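Bumping my old thread because nobody answered last time. Still need a sequence for this structure:
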């Protein structure tokens, strides 16, 4: 069987996972979240209303030419929650690139809002790039972020999230693999599925789509599913998954199959990392 390698996901994230030996593969297939071509948008999403996702943060790199990197969420006036692989993508020669910025207060990532410099980061100490696990990290801004009607801190929901929970994802990821640009923040309503169902669906999709993927860990990852042609894509990594009933963030876009091919999307489960977040957030 000839296995394909594709980037995937949602946050941009990844696309194929591998089981035989990740070490022998080019891991960029999982983390092509830095999209310099501006092809950013959730697949099958609709445009979010201004201020309806005031917690959203656009992470960018570059000074003269600014490129979108990842999504993130504001969890305190100085702490931003995102995926570990988003931080790793901006890590060069032992530190974050100096042009790494966090923009808040706008639905258009490259227009309006206010940008803040990043002072430091804390990546989960057990983050495993090779199998995309413990994919979570924090960024701290140099100064406090000013809150307003369009800039708000989102509460985190640490309770266990089972199947059948309605959630909302927002992001600036691609509309499809290699698809057209959407500068506007898009949203998509998704339902969580059980860990057992997720493991089965991912295994089935891996065979049907001929992708090698990492194992799903339901204790660390929250799976959501909508339908074919609706889901996360490149550029969505690090973005928030929020319960629609109580409004708390329960997930962080981590990985999945390349752009809404009919398989679940994997989010880092916020509730599994309460100690890490509470220890390091400022």
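Sorry it took so long. Here it is:
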């Amino acid at each position: 069987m000839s296995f394909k390698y594709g980037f995937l996901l949602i946050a941009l994230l990844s696309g194929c996972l591998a089981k035989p030996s990740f070490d022998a593969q080019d891991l960029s297939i999982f983390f092509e979240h830095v999209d310099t071509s501006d092809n950013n948008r959730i697949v099958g999403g609709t445009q979010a209303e201004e201020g309806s996702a005031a917690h959203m943060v656009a992470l960018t790199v570059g000074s003269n030419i600014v490129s979108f990197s990842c999504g993130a969420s504001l969890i305190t006036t100085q702490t931003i929650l995102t995926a570990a692989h988003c931080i790793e993508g901006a890590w060069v020669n032992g530190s974050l690139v100096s042009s790494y910025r966090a923009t808040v207060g706008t639905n258009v990532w490259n227009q309006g809002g206010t940008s803040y410099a990043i002072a430091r980061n804390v990546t989960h100490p057990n983050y495993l790039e090779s199998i995309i696990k413990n994919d979570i990290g924090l960024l701290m801004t140099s100064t406090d972020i000013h809150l307003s009607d369009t800039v708000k801190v989102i509460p985190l929901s640490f309770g266990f999230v089972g199947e059948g929970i309605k959630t909302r994802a927002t992001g600036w990821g691609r509309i499809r693999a290699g698809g057209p640009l959407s500068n506007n923040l898009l949203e998509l309503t998704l339902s969580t599925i059980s860990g057992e169902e997720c493991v089965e669906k991912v295994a089935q999709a891996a065979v049907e789509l001929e992708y090698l993927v990492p194992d799903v860990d339901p204790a660390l990852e929250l799976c959501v599913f909508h339908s074919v042609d609706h889901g996360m894509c490149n550029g969505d990594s690090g973005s928030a998954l929020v319960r629609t009933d109580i409004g708390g963030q329960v997930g962080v876009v981590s990985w999945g199959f390349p752009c809404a091919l009919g398989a679940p999307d994997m989010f880092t489960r916020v509730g599994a990392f309460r100690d890490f977040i509470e220890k390091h957030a400022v």
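Residues 16 and 274 are 28 Å apart (CA to CA). Let me know if any region looks off to you.
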